[in-house]
Amino acid sequence: MFIQTFVRKMSHNITSKLVNNADKAEKRLSELKSKLEQVKKFKVEEKIKELTQENETLLKKVEEAKLQLIKLETLNGKVQYPLPGKTTPVANNLNTPILEQPDVVKQTPAVKKEKKEKETAKKPKEKAAPTSTDIIDIRKLDLRIGKIIDVGKHPDADTLYVEKIDCGEENPRTVVSGLVNHVPIDEMRERIVMVLCNLKPVKMRGVTSEAMVMCASSPEKVEVLIPPNGAVPGDLVSCEGYPREPEPQLNPKKKIFETCAPDLKTNDDCVACYKDSALVVPGKGPVKAPTLKGVNVK
């Protein structure tokens, strides 16, 4: 009897502990689930915040890139038109005008044309005087004295020299000349020459040429022009009657040198001339060819 009572009591105690432990475990599990949800929520919010900041940064970079593009296009002469219903931020950031689209067309092309014809009939046409920018002659050529400080044969062309020429600038210019068959390399070294300095740089068999050595040329012979005694690198070459107004760089489309070339010749005294006016280094003398007379200078 005592044993049965003891067993029942022990069984009851064990059952109570198991129930109690189960309750504790369930409570603990509930707490862990709650904390897990909080962590998940925190991580999601943190990621959303991170992505939002990243998007704002990217949008800012896109706007900056747009402004930079508009600025570059405007500097290159491309007119900017704002989209209807949108304002453009360019005016606040750039000192460049933005043309606004007109809301109303005030005159039709036909009316404008008729008005223009009437004005033309009333006023005789006046021929505009050419400005210095319209004139194409030797004044646009930047001719200077240079000194060949280094010369060698072109690595990929047997008839070309590659020279380094001191033109009185911070760095020497690289010049490619087709003179191998006309002038021995020893005669090219340390030579004083006349150089055309404002040609557009052009690659010749892979080497960029930044100027041109001027020569007297006939079908049979080519001679490098000789500057006057005392001429030094950087001296400017002038032509009487044509004040120097050299372009920073000749525009190939205008064909300025090609227009001048037929009138660049040596005279009977072997002096290089443009339309019979001598090419000279002021105060030092004319530029001459060694022997060639009445031939083109190029």
TrEMBL record:
Pfam families per record: tRNA_bind
One annotated GO molecular function: tRNA binding
Subcellular localization, as worded in the UniProt entry: Cytoplasm
Residue stretches making up the TRNA-binding domain: 137-238
Coiled-coil boundaries: 15-75
Gene3D superfamilies, per database record: Nucleic acid-binding proteins (2.40.50.140)
Keywords: Coiled coil, Cytoplasm, Protein biosynthesis, RNA-binding, tRNA-binding
Compositional bias segments (type: Basic and acidic residues): 111-128
Main location: cytoplasm
CDD domains: tRNA_bind_EMAP-II_like (cd02799)
Region (Disordered): 108-130
GO biological process: translation
A GO-annotated cellular component: cytoplasm
SUPFAM superfamilies: Nucleic acid-binding proteins
Protein name: Aminoacyl tRNA synthase complex-interacting multifunctional protein 1
Organism: Bicyclus anynana
Gene (name only): LOC112057955
